Amino acid sequence: MTDLDGTAVHEFQGKIIIPKEVELGLMHHYESGRPLILNSLRFPLSVIRTFGQDWYKLSNAPIPTVTLNGSLMGFIKKTAESELVFDETAAFPLTANEIHEALQGVKALLDGGIKNVLVFYYPRDWRIGEVIWTPVPENIIAVKEKYLSASAVTAVEFAKLEEQMLAEDVCMIFLLVDVPEDQLMAYQHTKRSNFITHEGVDKLFGAHAMADVLKCDLRHSVGAGDTELDNFLNGVGLALIVGGNELKFRGEVDTIRLRDSNELGNLLFRAAEFAAGKAHA
Q1: Residues contacting residue 248 through CB under 8 Å, at least 6 positions apart
Q2: Residues ≥6 apart with Cβ < 8 Å to 107
Q3: Domain 96-196: CATH class, spelled out
Q4: Given pLDDT bands bounded at 50, 70 and 90, which one contains residue 88?
Q5: CA 56, CA 76: separation in Å to the nearest integer?
Q6: Where in the chain is the domain with CATH 3.30.1240?
Q7: What is the DSSP code string of 183-204?
């Protein structure tokens, strides 16, 4: 199981790429016949549009994928027309009360005169993708140009925004407040950025849910991640912490720190060789 951004894929000159070492490691891993689960904050449409085709060439089979911080999971599959689609297996959307509570925090900021607020929300219907709301209609074009991944940018009235969000299943909300920390001190529990999912839902929750779908035991798996959101590392047998972040996660059996994705690719390659050797033995 692996996180994506910063762990297995990187941005280079505006394009998301799979580093060569990771690609070789993944090829060897897939050849060993073992499943590999993607566990990411990204939404399905983003995975498909950025590096989905390249990853599918490596897997050559449906890719089990946990998205939106554990709240939407399924398989990225290829249709008869060679188009990639997302086939949902489980979803854990926010309740109406959770959506209302999140938006009440936004309303408090707006009432306090803070307009540099963006609400990103991700419907359960993966085809919709990412929707961004700004309270300033004049900012729509600038937001579109900055966040090219967005399917839509809107500036409807706040009451209409809440009505729209409550009318559909929303799996995750991301709040982004572009003001100095000292201005936020007056607003309790407010952060400059905040990912909101249904209570108890995170990457570890999603990891267990997908493991149940695949009928595998996380304690017998290897997991790779690079940020504090990658808490599924506490559920795997061997945790691989990629990069320099001082994360406190520990695998059930052992934990290894890797400098970068190149070392991750090399480890995947060697692990597949080891597994193949044991199978032949």
Answers
A1: none
A2: 158
A3: alpha beta
A4: very high
A5: 8
A6: 96-196
A7: HHTTSTT--SEEEE-STT-SHH
User: Where in the sequence of the chain do the CATH 3.40.50.1000 domains occur?
Assistant: 10-92+201-280
Using CA atoms, how far apart are residues 2 and 271, in angstroms rounded to an integer?
A: 15
Q: How far apart are CA 131 and CA 164, in angstroms?
A: 11
Predicted local confidence at residue 273, as pLDDT: 84
Model-wide pTM > 0.70:
yes
Rounded Cα–Cα distance for residues 164 and 149 (Å): 21
State the amino acid at position 128 in one-letter form: I
Contact of 119 with 175, CB cutoff 8 Å: yes
What span, in angstroms and rounded, lies between the C-alpha atoms of 25 and 36? Answer: 12
User: What is the CATH T-level fold of the domain 10-92+201-280, as seen in this structure?
Assistant: Rossmann fold (3.40.50)
Cα gap 208→121, rounded to integer Å? 24
| pLDDT tens profile 105-130 | 999 989 989 899 999 999 999 999 99
Give the per-residue pLDDT at 188.
Answer: 40
Residue 186 has pLDDT above 70, yes or no: no
The two structure tokens encoding residue 101: 């509570």
Residue with tokens 């941005």, as numbered in its chain:
11
pLDDT in tens, 14-68: 788 899 999 999 999 999 888 899 999 999 999 999 999 999 999 999 999 999 9
